[in-house]
Design brief:
Order of helices and strands: HHHHHHHHEEEEEEEEEHHHHHH
Helix content: 40-55%
Shape: globular
Largest sheet: 7 strands, mixed
Low-confidence stretches: 1-5
Radius of gyration: 22 Å
Mean pLDDT: 96
Structural class: alpha+beta
Strand content: 5-15%
Distance between the termini: 32 Å
Length: about 425
């Protein structure tokens, strides 16, 4: 039994899906976008809806049931799914851009969407072809939202054999999105081995118990609570990449470089919502500056308005240039991830060197996106003025969101990794964070 922490708190209040009834109905009655530009436009529409009260919702800190309902209604949750099951059939390049757009308005919802897309894709990387087909049909046909209890810094969940099922037990201090999900990705180590198993399980069951203890300064609506996993049963046939008859991992699935692609894929999710949050901060700040920021009068050549202040113009110009560069770099890496899945999925024949090369593109984005997002979300206060620090303005949420998640795994190690790549030609050994 998972008894590490029994201090379960009551579930927090949640938002009501009825709030978005009209907008959701419009999406549900509209055909799915068929082109990348149309999907990105759909994401912008969702972002515009979320932006209206993003600062208020962030302060209220209610479970985002309504906002996830909106993501589902808009079909952004299905952007990567096969068209034959009702999905958008888009590549990861589009998925990343959709996450970025949503994050411009609401960092928490951008993160939730990005994690959902990653966990929905798990079977494409560590599952058999049959398992991936069944998983995609389940998720896309039902428009399920997927969370994950896979924090690798915690002790592994324990997996035991129970005939035609496996049973998960354990505790995770962080899991993002599972509270508002339909399915949760579980991961642990099979008894008597050092072998890991991924599987999806229905979230709403007695054995998955959330402690509702996520109360951090940023990304407050991501429901990244602790979770207790107690005797959660999953059929052996759904143990991703394992043979249900021999109860052994399938070497041709799990011992090849392809099986490590989840890590660069999700690391690029991180960078895209960092960039989106920073662009959102710049947009928010520029509107505030235009309307409210006063010029500094105690100077030999006072400007006529805040938007004519030379130092303000220079800072905005620098922020804008760096964010454009971050987007461009993220798009290059996104295209490379897309091409791997588009052209190599059938044979899963990516080499160690190819996997390492794409990981270094992703690491480059992570370094630049982290530095730029922190610089922008902090620096916007210098171009908006002291009054912009008022709680009612809500400008601080952008920095709090970026600062919170950029501590996820130390970017210093990404820089060191890139240094070894430059000086020694050394590609990174796959880990839970590379």
């Amino acid at each position: 039994m998972a008894t590490q922490n029994e201090n379960t708190t009551a579930p927090p209040p949640s938002t009501d899906p009825a709030v978005y009834h009209k907008q959701s109905k419009v999406f549900e009655e509209s055909p799915l976008p068929s082109e990348p530009k149309a999907w990105i436009q759909r994401a912008k529409q969702v972002a515009n809806i979320l932006a209206v009260d993003a600062a208020v919702r962030e302060k209220d800190n209610q479970s985002p049931i309504a906002e996830v309902f909106l993501l589902k209604a808009s079909a952004l949750t299905k952007v990567l799914g096969p068209a034959k099951y009702g999905g958008g059939d888009q590549g990861w390049d589009v998925g990343y851009k959709v996450v970025r757009e949503v994050a411009k308005a609401d960092g928490s919802l951008g993160q939730l969407l990005g994690y959902h897309l990653l966990w929905s894709w798990t079977s494409a990387v560590v599952g058999t072809d049959d398992q991936h087909e069944r998983t995609q049909e389940l998720i896309i046909k039902n428009n399920y939202f997927v969370g994950g209890a896979v924090n690798p810094r915690d002790n592994d969940q324990r997996i035991t054999d129970a005939g035609d099922h496996i049973v998960f037990n354990g505790f995770k201090h962080f899991n993002t999105g599972s509270v508002v999900s339909d399915l949760t990705v579980l991961e642990g180590v099979y008894e008597g081995t050092d072998k890991h198993i991924f599987a999806l399980a229905p979230t709403q069951q007695p054995g998955i118990r959330f402690l509702h203890d996520w109360d951090n300064m940023g990304l407050r609506l991501t429901e990244s609570d602790s979770v207790s996993i107690e005797n959660v049963r999953v059929p052996w046939r759904d143990a991703l990449g394992w043979d249900e008859k021999t109860k052994e991992p399938i070497a041709s699935v799990l011992t090849i470089p392809w099986a490590t692609l989840l890590l660069p894929t999700i690391q690029l999710v991180f960078s895209n919502f960092y960039i989106g949050i920073a662009i959102g901060a710049l947009d928010f700040a520029s509107s505030y500056t235009s309307k409210n920021t006063r010029p500094w009068p105690y100077t030999p050549r006072p400007a006529a308005s805040g938007v004519e202040e030379p130092y303000i113009l220079q800072r905005y110009g620098s922020f804008f240039a760096h964010l454009r560069a971050a987007e461009a770099l993220a798009d290059v890496a996104g295209d490379r991830i897309r091409d791997i899945y588009l052209h190599r999925s059938k044979k899963r024949d990516i080499t160690v060197a190819e996997r390492g090369e794409v990981a270094e593109w992703v690491a480059s984005v992570k370094v630049f996106a982290t530095d730029t997002a922190l610089r922008v979300t902090n620096g916007v206060f210098e171009v908006t003025g002291a009054r912009a620090t008022a709680a009612k303005v809500g400008l601080d949420r952008f920095w709090r969101d970026v600062r919170t998640h950029t501590l996820h795994d130390p970017v210093a190690y990404k820089k060191e990794e890139l240094g070894r790549y430059v000086l020694e030609g050394q590609i990174p050994t796959p880990t839970w964070y590379t």
